[in-house]
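I have been asked to look over a protein record a colleague put together. What it holds is a sequence and that sequence's fold in token form. Please read both lines and tell me whether the tokens look consistent with the sequence. I do not need a full report, just your reasoning and any doubts. This is what I was given:
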Amino acid sequence: MILTIHDNTLQKVAFIDNNKQGTLNFYNDKWTRYLSKASSLFGFTVFKKTIQTDVIPYQTANALNDQSFVSFVYKGRTYLFNVMTIEETEHTITCTCKDLNLELTNEYTNPFKSDKARTFKEYCDVMGLLDFAALRIGVNEISDQRRTLEWTGQDTKLNRILSLANKFDAEVDFEVKLNANGTIKDFILNVYREHDDKHQGVGKVRSDIILKKGKNIRSIKRKIDKTDLIVNAIRPTAQGENGQEITIAGLGPWEVKNENGVVEFFQQGDMLYAPISMQKYPSTWTGSTGNRDKYTRKDITVDTKSKETLRTQAYKELMRSAYPSVTYEIDGYVDLEIGDTAKVYNGDFYPALLLEVRVSEQTISFTKPSTNKTVFDNVRALKSKLSSGIQERWQELFEASKPYLIKLATDNGVIFKNGIGQSIVTPTLYKGGRPITANVTWRWSLDGAVKTGMAYTVRGADVTDTSTLTVAAYIGNDEVAVDELTFVNVLDGRDGVKGEKGDPGQKGSDGLPGRDGVGIRSTTVAYASSTNGATAPTTGWTAVVPTVAPGNYLWTKTVWTYTDGNTETGYNVSRIGRDGNTGRDGIAGKDGVGIRSTTITYGKSTSGTIQPTSWTSQVPSVPNGQFLWTKTVWAYTDNTSETGYSVAKMGEIGPTGAKGDRGATGPQGADGRTQYTHIAYADNATGGGFSQTDQTKAYIGMYQDFTAINSTNPTSYRWSKWKGSDGAQGIPGPKGADGRTPYIHWAYSDSADGTGLTTSDNGQRYIGHYSDYTQADSTDKTKYRWADRWAKIEVGGRNILRNATFSNPKERSETFTVGGTTYKNIEIPNWGSMYNSGITNPTISYHAFYRESFNGTGPVIEFNESNGQRNWKALYQTLQASDLRVGKYTFSADIFATGVGTKIRFGIYYYNKAGQQSFHSGLTTIDISTINKWHRVSGNLKLNDDIDFNREVRIHIYAYDFTTNSILYLTKPQLEEGTVATTFGEAQADVEKRIDAKADQAFTQEQLNLLNERAGIMQAELEAKASLDTVNNILKQIKDMRAADEATWAKVEKDLITHLQRVIKIETNLGDQAQRWNAVDTFMQVSNDGLSLGKADGSSSMLFSPDGRITMFSSGTPVMYVDKGVIHIDNGIFSKTVQIGRFREEQYHNNPDINVKRYVY
């Protein structure tokens, strides 16, 4: 590791290198990085010593002072630190450094309240967070978000940036790039979406690394703590502009379900509830108060004016407070970057612990790696993804391991008196607490007598003193369990002398609980009519009381069904009397009451049990999921009234319906045509002196048509004079000021401040301009106003589309007939079928089809409308959610069109968060103007943040509805992030798949272990009866190998001398920097540390060090090295021969399963 010391202008003044004795060296170094603070600290100690380059009285160590800066390169990224404290003794200098500049860490920014919603960058600009700190925004994943925010106090610029990111639910990091002389080249602020289930934030997802105890971490400790307040109900409030209270009441229905589909959070009224948390951690000890009283409530105040933001913040607070805190302490250092996420596995827990963790803090020492430490947070427990079949098999094995157990029951105990009585023994077989009855038989043995049966009767007369009953349980023919039961027969002796009365006995304990009582399961009542009042009818029973004629009998039958399966039936009979004599008129009744009026009103509410307080005579609009109440008031003529209510719930939004049938094809529209305007110039009104370029002529002509080529016929144009003739000499005016000619000057530079400017445009990033009255261009960079020419350019370069080369096609049964030629439908892996069975006559009306080649290029997709058919034709692919994120994309492809009027359209087809599937981010159309040649076209599209990444996402490529009967061919499609189309390349997954398919099959570790095991147990005897010719052949092989070995060493030494003596044609002085070459998925890099080459993803690499050491790495860990004649490797295979000293071991030529060892002189 090399530390570079800079002066206060960032010029390099010294180096500290522990690999060289002739420079300063450092020790006791400690570099601590923090994710939450987006900053880091670096401390180290330097021993003050005099080196050869020192000039008395100046010492190199003196360059390390309170005005210094320190930088180093770590994993290809530059880190620059400001020396904050210096502790110096007679022999050492200890420095504590902090990254970022003093402008950010020390300068304060004032309170600010925004009068409108602004973006992240607009807040940075209006509060001056970037300008004076020489800082610019690089990555900005929240560029389309706007918020209305306020800060009431002062704070440093760094803390204000962190606060601003927090209010935008974002994370930031800072990146520094230096010029070759050590000065600042670029200072970048990158802004990422906050880390959650869908966004990574700062860092990467390191799916290639799994942390395991004993391998790359030492231990894991889990702590569950609920000493902090558990809250499962929150009422959030805010203060409005006029001081009024704002709540979340009135917002639409809201709930959040967990992964099992159970509601975990919901809103009711002005509060949010966590029902699962309430069930686990109720506020009371009993359930007598009802569920609502078992919630633990908390009131919070949020600084916002938006109800939606108020609910969002309350939801976050409720998620944090609803469950105990679970923390994991992981002891060990892992070579990850800040913000990276990885998985942790520990099988010592039950069930096995599987976590996803994120690096939040890291401490690194370059001189003492044993003190390195990594701190993780955002710990999330993952569920096992074992298939259901494996889990079921594991359950079967677990059940099979449980023992069988016999339980015996008797109806009369195990003790007989005087040989009288009997006892029936009934067995039950259990396995793991579960009774087993299927295919179970029993064998009994009492005093040698063996019987079989499901029970056994022991008689007192058969028992003398004691007898043992043995019972064995069989399943099929296998004995699975055995048990014994001992019976005793007690005989009365002679009556003894009557004893004295004993002391009163103690109060007996409560008896055993009685058997379960029998309850009524159901009661059934039926009725029947009969002329007999003594005998119940046998038919005609109904559940409805029938009409009974006067003088007949009404029978009632009641059937009680009990819980033990028994029933009882009871009857009741009554006689219907005949009509009596007509009675006298009764006393006149009171006046009746009539309805004077009926009033109906309506109201809406979020509750279906509590009436609303506001009512209207018109039916209101009720949101889905809420309730419509109807209140009816009847006013009677006696001045009394009654009120009735009815309620109905508005239906929730149902699931998306099935896709409907494709509509009938509409009539063909008129051909789309592009109109062109043509302009020419002439000397007179008839077109004399015709020209299409000379604008100094007096007349201008124009016409319009639908042809792109300008006509050279003057009669096609309509001419008009646009330049008047010279007028008469005017009256002389007053004398004017000295005439001066203004000049505009342009310059170009790779630095934002214009450092190293030049007047030649060589593709530099920044362009500057100014104007004055001097013709010569100034070299003063401060005169120019500089602008970033690449500010809106975003480049991705990675193809997201799988199988973009249309490889491995497969024929299907469908056919297409176009222009008299029949084609077979071809299915392409990773692409959707191009056969559209949903349209009329699909055998001639189709999407598109596959061709092996066209005009020297292939494979291609052909969109053929030469027969006049204008049916929908498309190509689509389902995209991987892991390849996508919200932002801008570019689509490009090679195109060949046989005529004008062709076009392609493309867009991303996805479900939004409301469950609707469409091109929510729009479609892009490209009209093809170049015909009869292959050329590449591109267009931009985007992916909005309303996407639901948990559902299917597609890209559709349309080519149909041409304005002419033409054919369009397409190949090499590419979808990439950014706004610039790059050279076509295959998807990374396709490249890796192809490489894996070509790789030779190698021994796995399991095969090596098996081979060693076989070698260990193999006993082979070799009887070698070699002839003299055989011995001579072996001797000749040994001599030839030795001679070849000596010749090879001599050639290597000669080649090295020749290589070093060659004249150098190209020489590059890299200094402390590196030079790197990148291929598709490999790289090669040269630096002062040596030459490295390997895979771009870091899975494998090699390092050739200048000191002669060759090291091979796997995922950053050394697995083999060669150094000073020593090779170190854990596992290896020699296919033929290996020689150590004067002994050579090789495979026996007559039997490959035998090795022989020979002495070589």
